[in-house]
Amino acid sequence: MGSTATTANMEHETLARVYASSDVAATRALYDEWASTYDREMADASQNYVGPALASACVLRMVGPDDLARAAVLDAGCGPGLVGLHLARAGARTIDGIDLSPGMLGVARRTGAYRALDAVDMSGPLPQRDASYAVAVCIGTFTQGHVGPDAMAELVRVVRPAGFVVATVLASIWETGGYAARVAALVAESRAKLVSADLTDYRQGAGVQARMVILQVL
């Protein structure tokens, strides 16, 4: 019991530090520091981070197993590769990952799920070409103190027409952080169709929910 409580306290402390960070360099350093234990801590019952599994299931449902096997997928904000692993198990064969943290990318590289991994600050334009992916996933990145809503438009830009963007947005900032408005603008500009933005479990053990945003690019 004592060990579990200690682990939970460490997790909450780390998350609090990450959420409180507003400086890119400081955030990068925090994630580099967290990289070696992130998977274990987020899988702990106190967090039960189900977002990656649920998002991968959404991708499979939208694309289908045959097309997923042929699709080029961008895992934006890939962290240590949790989403990539789920997608690979679902049949994805071509996954590129980008993340702010070189430490997280090092862990992701060891999964063997990725074709390429690159350090990218998603608060600016992405280096990927227009319409270069069939699917872009972004899980756990649109959260407190992290990447702002304009990055949603960048994800739409790098996905080809008829492809999909699947992203989680922390429920508590969906409206106040401008994400709902940015998605509405993409729809109004005829750049994407909103398939759904359902409230779903995210860090289930902590009772934290997110919007699971599914956009089809036009």
Automatic annotation (TrEMBL):
Alphabetical list of Pfam families matching this protein: Methyltransf_25 (PF13649)
SUPFAM superfamilies for this protein: S-adenosyl-L-methionine-dependent methyltransferases (SSF53335)
Occurrences of domain Methyltransferase (ranges): 73-163
Biological process annotations from GO: methylation
Name under which the protein is recorded: Methyltransferase domain-containing protein
Record carries keyword Transferase: yes
Keyword terms, alphabetized: Methyltransferase, Transferase
Gene3D superfamilies, per the entry: Vaccinia Virus protein VP39 (3.40.50.150)
Organism: Metarhizium acridum (strain CQMa 102)
GO MF: methyltransferase activity
